């Protein structure tokens, strides 16, 4: 299963229980389709580099959250449809990541590479 990162900008005036409910709904969609939520980060209300305009609305701030999920493409399409149809979502994006390297911490990955280099140099020598 591929690893995806979802980044979402929501309306800043959205109450915390509604924000949590939105994240739970996305996580539930992923888990119902056999996927796994590996990480959730909330960055809170942030000032935006430029205003996001909607009819009769203008937003200079947004509540930003990120969710990392391991799921299939069909479940991802459902999640993106859910975000597209939610009036509280200003913008969203999904990025496909390399699942093997993303789940390994950087320090562990560096140690594995050093061990590989040592073992390959011993084989040559």
UniProtKB/TrEMBL annotation:
A UniProt-annotated Pfam family: Ribosomal_S6
Keyword list, A-Z: Ribonucleoprotein, Ribosomal protein
Gene Ontology MF annotations: small ribosomal subunit rRNA binding; structural constituent of ribosome
Record-level GO BP terms: translation
GO cellular component: cytoplasm; ribosome
PANTHER family in the record: MITOCHONDRIAL 28S RIBOSOMAL PROTEIN S6 (PTHR21011), SMALL RIBOSOMAL SUBUNIT PROTEIN BS6M (PTHR21011:SF1)
UniProt similarity note: Belongs to the bacterial ribosomal protein bS6 family.
Identification of the protein by name: 37S ribosomal protein MRP17, mitochondrial
Source organism of this protein record: Haematococcus lacustris
Upper classification of the organism: Eukaryota, Viridiplantae, Chlorophyta, core chlorophytes, Chlorophyceae
């Amino acid at each position: 299963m591929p690893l995806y990162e979802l980044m979402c900008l929501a309306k800043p005036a959205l109450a915390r229980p509604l924000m949590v409910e939105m994240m739970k709904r996305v996580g539930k969609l992923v888990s119902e389709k056999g996927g796994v939520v590996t990480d959730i980060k909330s960055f809170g209300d942030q000032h935006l580099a430029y205003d996001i305009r909607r009819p009769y609305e203008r937003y200079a701030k947004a509540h930003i959250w990120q969710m990392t999920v391991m799921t299939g493409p069909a479940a991802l399409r459902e999640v993106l449809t859910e975000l597209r149809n939610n009036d509280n979502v200003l913008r969203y994006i999904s990025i496909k990541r390399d699942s093997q390297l993303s789940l390994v911490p950087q320090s562990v990955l560096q140690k594995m590479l050093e061990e590989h280099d040592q073992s390959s140099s011993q084989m040559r020598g």
